[in-house]
Design goal:
homodimer; 507 residues; six-stranded mixed β-barrel; 20% strand; 18 helices; alpha/beta; disordered N terminus; four-stranded antiparallel beta sheet
Chain lengths: 507, 507
């Protein structure tokens, strides 16, 4: 047995960067026969503590028998590599971790106990520090789903989620924001709402996410027009100068625990109400919002499927939002079909630009939805009288003021460019004549993703028909856009073998 | 983009064995920039379906940017490699998996619905087929812990766990078995109980596990004396000839889902009552047991910590066992200190042999515990009148009949050998004189593991003092045994810095 294995303080192995993307799960790989592992009695899938100078993490251990890793090496996932802040070859100390104290409170919650403020903060801190394995995160999320958190618990959770991340402060009493609970392709209202309310002298420092499971996130769409990866100082100056921004929030660490929880929720495929509330509000509190309008599309293939669920969620958001001094207004909207014609980063960007330009071919539904949300924000923020918000918002678009503001913001963020156009397209014809009865939003999103969105920005789907339209046999219902023949063929094959748009006889 | 990526049926990559031990979690690693992944839009941590001929699995995808894996390769964990039954270079088809239907029932259970028989069987089948990621297993276990399964649900679960594995059939109406709920070092009664009841012409086809988190499992201990990795035909013939066996059950696929659930429960560190009942009974039903005696040690550092918990667990085991026509008797025993003097495979084996040989230095507590359990089995099986089981068991030991039977079984399993003896030992002295007041079973086990047990069979701890013993200052409380100086130093360092045995003043 080698010397390092003999003294507990000598449990050191040379760090090796594997370039292994495990998302934010922390993974370390060692040789099963490494002296350190043998003397420590580590087994595959054990939780181990890694220490590099002052930094330390708890990671999941996998073991190899092959020469993939050297006997004196320790391979790290990208997530672990970054958290440990190591350089190639640095000696990292590996040992048994102390039990994570907050986990016993989480276990208690499974058995019916609530988490008090201290326990909730300890839990969120440990999650932020990467001390929870995915199974622990699943245990926590399950416990919250099994017994819906009460408003106190939810408030503590949101506060804790905000506390472990960055928080934007603004020299204004009114900071507006909007959010869509999602599940609806297209519906790219954010750039329009920002431009409209900023044109009316409200401050809207909008940070958005990139797509995770959808064909496009707002950040992906805006990125086809201007730069979105702003640092916080740049974001501040853009907002101070133009009243709004459209930035990617991913790198800003606003409620970073939310991103971790969302990843595991996606794997579990659960959307517990309490968790949705904590997710939305923690991000908005961290962004410094005081007035928030929420778009909750309801439809059988949207995220929220019934009016009843939407109303319960709305009530919860408004009550808990008030705990943080946030005025929240929820708009329950039609989620039966996509909003706008484009699905995919560039195609949605073209829709946005068409609305701003008051072009003939602009998608009226996207314009209407944006006016609705912006109008609600103008009223909520006290800039417009009840009932006046809509007309004011419409006016900002019609007058071109919103467009000017949009372009000013883009230039301030790094310049204005034309979104790309796909090289490969294919029209999808209707199998028979009739009336468009139904859209499967999930499958439509899948077609856009198979076509290459969001990775290929010009890829996606462009809709020619809407619910209620009469179509002839052979008439194009939508066009698939792709940047490669392979992806086009692939998306087309899926579209041809799965019902995407339902065309029926006369009602 | 390469051709394979263009047609969905062409999504094939060459299998590469990574020798990566992820326990039974199925993991696949590809290059992030591989055309297949790009066209499929796979992201790190996605669940993917892998197909090789008729076999297919769902695995968790990790992605590398480094040259660790080739562009046209797909690296597989050992678990995935074996389930897929591939050879190096075989083309494996990778695609998006169908949603796992049973997961929606599990989600429903989190929200308060029970699983009906069909749903429970579907769930256990999917787990057995490796379709659940660890987060899904954690979700299932959390849902069962949050709302304790009723007897019907538990019965369905046990039946399903038995159905997906092998099941031993025996040409006798009475098949006895025993099990210890564990958490107590030493307590190696199984070989003694098997020998005693077999000597009284009962059949006890005992299958045991290897240590997972403890310093020794029964299989590890018996393996220092004879062979334990028997196949089912060999096991049958040993039992037919001698009435008992002491085999490793790990390779027999008796309730294989239990092993999967236990691994994740360990990570979650939960021992939900219902889960314990399902775990024990599913293994015993699969082994064909009709009469079962359970040893439930109670103590502050044992698995079951209060008399009340033990009694609830006992009631549950007896009720649900009856659903399977199994007579279950639970013995609640003293779990305050180890049973026997040895902790570690060989040291426990020496204890067992000393009892069988009626040697002077035999551990009386181990003998008494074994007589208690064997006696209870003799009575439960109707071989002994009430109150007569103990004396009959003691008699089998005293007469040497148990020893003869033990040796016959060992010879039939592959021969009888002397357990090894450690090359390195160190006595741990008492810091002061007084009476032994307390043992920390968990830390004692940790010392034995750091000394090398069970990997190093001769390693472990040998106790010289018991609760209530008066000891002098400097007198050895226990001796650490190891096979290497490094491990000895390591275990010693831990023992010296952690309170293992508490010696106090006069009561």
């Amino acid at each position: 047995m080698s010397v390092p294995a003999q003294a507990p303080n000598g449990n050191k192995l040379a760090a090796r960067r594997l370039g292994l993307d495990t998302h934010d799960e922390l993974v370390v790989i060692t040789r099963r026969d490494s002296p350190v592992c043998r003397s420590e009695g580590f087994s595959a899938h054990a939780r181990v503590r890694l220490k590099n100078g002052r930094r330390n993490i708890i990671a999941t251990l996998y073991q190899v028998d092959s020469a993939l890793i050297g006997l004196d090496e320790l391979g790290l996932s990208e997530s672990a590599w970054k958290r440990l802040g190591v350089a190639e070859g640095d000696l990292v100390h590996i040992s048994h971790p102390q039990p994570v104290a907050s986990l016993s409170a989480v276990r208690g919650r499974i058995y019916g106990k609530r988490l008090d403020r201290a326990q909730m903060h300890a839990t969120i801190n440990d999650i932020a520090a990467g001390r929870y394995a995915d199974v622990h995160l699943a245990m926590f999320l399950s416990s919250m789903a099994a017994r819906d958190p009460d408003d106190d618990e939810l408030t503590d959770m949101i506060q804790a989620m905000v506390d472990v991340g960055e928080r934007l402060e603004w020299p204004r009493d009114v900071i507006v924001d909007k959010h869509c609970v999602g599940g609806l392709p297209g519906n790219r209202t954010t750039p329009l709402v920002v431009s409209i309310v900023a044109a009316h002298d409200l401050w809207m420092p909008k940070t958005s996410s990139r797509a995770i499971t959808s064909p496009a996130g707002t950040a992906d769409t805006v990125e086809t027009i201007t730069r979105v990866d702003l640092d916080i100082p740049t974001l501040r100056s853009v907002v101070r100068a133009h009243g709004g921004c459209m930035a990617w929030g991913g790198a800003m660490r606003l409620s970073p625990v939310d991103d971790t929880l969302i990843r595991v929720e996606r794997l579990m495929d659960i959307d517990a109400e309490g968790q949705m509330v904590a997710s939305v509000l923690s991000k908005k509190v961290a962004a410094g919002a005081t007035h928030l309008v929420l778009d909750v599309p309801v439809g059988e293939t949207a995220k929220v499927r019934s009016q009843h669920d939407a109303e319960r969620l709305a009530g919860r958001l408004e009550t808990v939002g008030a705990r943080f001094g946030m005025k929240v207004r929820v708009l329950i909207t039609d989620g039966r079909q996509p909003v706008g014609r484009g699905i995919g980063p560039a195609l949605e960007a073209h829709d946005v630009l068409a609305v701003l330009a008051n072009a003939d071919e602009q998608p009226k539904d996207l314009r209407a939805r944006s006016v609705l949300l912006a109008g609600a924000l103008l009223e909520l923020a006290g800039v417009a009288e009840a009932g006046e918000g809509g007309p004011m918002a419409e006016n900002a678009l019609a007058s071109g003021l919103a467009r000017q503001r949009f372009e000013a913001i883009c230039r301030a963020q790094g310049g204005l460019r034309e979104p790309p156009v796909a090289t490969e397209t294919h029209d999808m014809p209707s199998a028979h004549g009739g009336v468009v009865r139904r859209f499967d939003n999930r499958r439509l999103a899948q077609v856009a993703k198979l076509a290459g969105a969001p990775g290929a920005p010009a890829a996606g789907v462009y809709l020619h028909a809407r619910l209620g339209d009469r179509v002839e046999r052979g008439q194009a219902l939508y066009t698939i856009h792709a940047e490669s023949r392979g992806e086009l063929a692939y998306a087309r094959e899926y579209a041809e073998t799965n019902g995407i748009v339902t065309v029926g006889g006369e009602a």
